[in-house]
Amino acid sequence: MTSSPEPGEFITLLTEDEVKALYAAGRPRRWDRGATMFTEGDVSDWVLILTSGRVKVSSHTAVGSEVVLAVRGPGALLGEFAAIDGLPRSATVTALEPVEGITVRDFSSYLQAHGRVAVLLMQMVTGKMRDSDRKRIEYGAFDTTGRVATRLVELAERYGEPDNGGVRVALPLSQDELAGWTGASREAVSKALRSLRDRGLIETGRRRVIIHDMEGLRKRAR
């Protein structure tokens, strides 16, 4: 089942004709929760356009710990680096929930036939680089609680739903994965969540967070 694309994702930047041509060049696929679509270091040249579900993009350090680079949802384009430069995959992409998408093998030919999309892709890649730089700055400038608050605000803005005056987020990440997304240990993330709960900013449960004070959480994130 196709979900509405998230604002700002790749597919939302295309015209209806560009989307039709892109989907016509590919084929639909489905993955179960926990399935791996791309594996870091693999050599393959196809891209994936998510149509439903969320995934995590991750990499591993030299000692084997996982670093979560991003969480992506419907409308996202994944795997474009390897499709363009032919180098091995730079990250692993794993389904956080059941996922559907369109796989396109000859993405370069599509870009050659749609020059405007190639320019949009270049802008999108630049945006990813800027976001990566911003996160590196966060790791050096913010404490763990600030980084956790920042990621919760990001999830709430993208996936949150109203809930009795607050914002409910169906959290797709475990505490271990949230730790990998914030550059902290699981114990530090657990302590940060407890601190945010004690301040009355959030309420946590299994795989979900309710944000009671969004502005307060934003201030703590800053």
UniProtKB/TrEMBL annotation:
Residues 10-100 form the Cyclic nucleotide-binding domain. The keyword Heme does not apply. Gene3D superfamilies: Jelly Rolls (2.60.120.10), Winged helix-like DNA-binding domain superfamily/Winged helix DNA-binding domain (1.10.10.10). The keyword Repeat does not apply. Residues 142-215 form the HTH crp-type domain. Keywords: DNA-binding, Transcription, Transcription regulation. Pfam families: cNMP_binding (PF00027), HTH_Crp_2 (PF13545). CDD domains: CAP_ED, HTH_CRP. PANTHER family: CRP FAMILY TRANSCRIPTIONAL REGULATORY PROTEIN, DNA-BINDING TRANSCRIPTIONAL DUAL REGULATOR CRP. This is Crp/Fnr family transcriptional regulator.
